[in-house]
Amino acid sequence: MTDTSRRVLSRRVSETRAEDTSRLIPEEVPVALVYDGTTHAVMMATPADLEDFGVGFSITEGIVSARDEIRELEIVEHEKGLEARIWLVPEAGRKQVERRRRITGPSSCGLCGVDSLEAAVAEARRVGRSTTTTPGEIQRALGAMSPAQTLNVATRAVHGAGFWDASAGAFAAVREDVGRHNALDKLVGAVATAGLDPTQGFVVLTSRVSVEMVQKTAMMGAEIIVAVSAPTALALRVADEAGITLVAIARSDAFEIFTRPERITLAAQTGDGDRQEVLSHVLAR
User: Fold this and answer.
1) Which of 17, 65, 96, 198 is placed for a possible disulfide with 222 were both Cys, Cβ 3.0 to 4.6 Å?
2) What secondary structure does DSSP assign to 30-93, as a single string?
C-alpha cells in the first residue's frame, strides 16, 4: 500500500546560516471512487483509511444512507493512484445510476461537479436534539486532539477530524488527510462502520468550518461541531437551519458558540446552590 508520508531533503536558512536537513511530508494521491464499475469522483487524498473514506463519502454525498447499503468495498492500487471500488445493494445502485455524475477536484474543493446553485447550497439534513456537553468536556477533547493526530505530529501538514465519545471521555476515532473534507468523510465512515451513535458525542475539526463541513456533519447525524478555526457566514446559517450547535475558534482556555447554544451547559454558583446555566456567548474557563 502507498506510504502516507515521505522523508525529503530541504535546506533551513536563517539570516546568518544555512544547513541541510530533512523532514517528513504527507503523500497526496488521486483516489477514484468507483460505484458498480463507474467512476463517480476523483479526489486528491492522503492514502490512509481509504475504506473509511469510501464509506463516509458515500454517506455524506447521499449515495447511501447507511453502511449496510454497501455490499462490498475494495481498495485497488494503480501506478498513478488508487481506486475505492464500491458495490452497492440493488436499490442504492439504481438510485446512483439516476444521479450519476463525475467530479474531479483538488483537496480544497468540496463542490466540484455540482451543476446548479441550488445543488451547491442544498438544504442540510436536520439533526436531533439529544446531545449536550460542557465546556470542560470540550476542552478535554481539544487537549487530546493534537497528540491523536499521529500523521500531523510527524508532518505538520494535514487536517484532522475526530469523534469525541462523551461516555468514554476519549476519542472513539480520529482521521487525517491533506484535505479537510476528506478527513471528515473518513471520520464519518469510521463512525458508521463501528456502529457508533453520533449523538453520543461531538465532532472536532482542526480546520475552518465551511458550509460543506456542516453539511457532511449533518449527514452523519452529529449535533455538535467543535472547530479550532472560524466558520464562514454561510456555514453558520446552514448550521442553524440544520439544528447543529457550532463551536469555533476553540482554544484551551475559551471558545465561542455561534449557533444553538442550548446544548452547552455550565455549572454556575448561585445563592441557591449550583444550577445549570445555558451559555449563548463566549465561554472562558
Assistant:
1) 198
2) EEEEEETTEEEEEEEE-SSSHHHHHHHHHHHTTS-SSGGGEEEEEEEEETTEEEEEEEE-HHHH
Give the total number of structural domains in the chain: 2
Where does a domain end: 88, 120, 152? 120
112 assigned to some structural domain: yes
Residue 116 backbone phi and psi in degrees, to 5: -155, 155
Catalytic residue among 109, 121, 154, 170: 109
**CB-based burial of residue 45 (10 Å sphere; 0-12 exposed, 13-18 middle, 19+ buried)?**
buried
CATH number of the domain at 100, please. Answer: 3.10.20.10
Q: 27: which 3 cell numbers? A: 503523500
Number of H helices, E strands in the chain: 8, 16
What's the domain range around 207? 135-284
- Write out residues in the chain with pLDDT < 70, as ranges: 1, 101-121, 267-285
- pLDDT tens-place string over residues 13-26: 999 999 999 999 99
The answer to whether 22 and 8 are in contact (CB under 8 A) is yes
pTM here is 0.89
Active site residue 112: no
176 and 217 belong to one structural domain: yes
CB-CB contact of 133 with 257 (8 Å): no
Q: Are 227 and 250 in contact (CB under 8 A)?
A: yes
Q: Which of 120, 155, 186 is a domain's end point?
A: 120
Same domain, residue pair 108 and 220: no
Residue 239 included in any domain: yes
